[in-house]
Amino acid sequence: MKKLLFVFALCALFMGAETILFAAGPNSNPNQSAEYVKTQSRSASIEPDAAFFNPAGTALMKDGFYYYISEQVIVDPIRIKPFGGYANELMGASRHEYKADKSGFTFINLYLVHKKDRVAWSFGFLPLGGGGNATYNNGLQMIDLALNPQALLGGILNQLYGGTPVIGGSVISKLKGFSVVYTAQMSVAYEAIKDILTLSLGVRGMYGVTVLDATLYALGGRYAGYLPGASNFHANQQGLAYGFIGGVDLKPVKDLTIAVKGEWNSPLRQKTVSTDYIAFGMFDKSNMDGNKRHAQIPGTLGVGAAYQIQGAQIAAHYTYYFNQFAQMRGREKNFTGGYDIGGGIDYTFKSAPLNIGAGYQWSETGARPSALSQFNDDVDYHTVGGGISYLFNEKMKLTLAFAYSHYITTDINKGTMFKFNPAKYYRQGYFGAIGFTHKVI
What we know:
Elements: H1 2-15, H2 34-39, H3 50-53, E1 64-82, H4 87-90, E2 98-116, E3 119-136, H5 141-146, H6 152-161, E4 171-193, E5 197-218, E6 232-253, E7 256-265, E8 268-275, H7 278-283, E9 292-295, E10 300-309, E11 312-321, E12 338-348, E13 354-364, E14 381-391, E15 396-407, E16 410-411, E17 423-439
Antiparallel strand pairs: 1-2, 1-17, 2-3, 3-4, 4-5, 5-6, 6-7, 6-8, 7-10, 8-9, 10-11, 11-12, 12-13, 13-14, 14-15, 15-17, 16-17
Helix pairs in contact: 1-6
């Protein structure tokens, strides 16, 4: 047991601060409705998705009960190309290229709003963080390099097992993961000055779950590739958190809406239940059975504006993420504040019950080079979106939207122990969304 503890202590010093396998980083998901995918800017919404984007704005809606539901399909193909290409394979160091996919096929948003006189109540259910799967069918360069028998971690594993080495050649790995922060939130908004000023206050509860699976096999080892206590890694991490939401909505003139929203979320501590964690406990001690994964969706402060003119609506927003104050067991030092900035326009035809729109957003994640690795890929990105809405009548609307994200190509190994072997990271994101709005009464 003492030998095992020594190994993990040595690896913790060698690998540095803990990483988060497959996680999307500290920032929350901004794409919380099909209308957002369409125009990329909903911070000043006064439609049912304001339950998330602008709770104070719900008090400016017409009296009645509304519900909104949307579903998104998200596919992100990823390529990691290590420096040296095929020479890495000839030397037995790593593959010449690694391919992966991140995807989400059940990204559902549900919003309910009830407005009566000067008071509005809203409810939302959404995946505030994560929300998808990650699959690395041919592993990661980071694992191949670290567990190579000539590398430090590979040598430590061989020493741990004792006798004939269990890692005699290249490591073959496959990784899968799922991570989401399910969130239910409720807000109350009050129209302090009729048609001009509204205020809101809300609360949310969060349930975070992360499921990790990995298989590791080492060529030429003592057990024909099998690594006792490491070959079939599985971890289930679950935890609870809460948060508060406050907002102000101002209409200085009839056709202009200005909204401000702030959020604070408590730390999310997910307890780990895991098996075969010897190898992956070296990369991240939160993967060890009984430990906890330390995370926190950071607080935010955002401002949005929307102006209506001759059937068109022009919208813009800026949201700041206080990553540097999130409690992530020291990892917050690897982040500065992040932000999203974007704008969009949509137009409703007079001659047809149609609305078309498009938008753009730039996302600066705030991740320093030291925060980036093949396990934690919070790179900056551009997003463009567009879509169409069909208005059945004044009470029902159906929206179809699509978006594309281009992630800035970067050296994903720059801030890690593998910086001697640069690896270019390529990622794109494809979004398809459908949303339905209904005013019941």
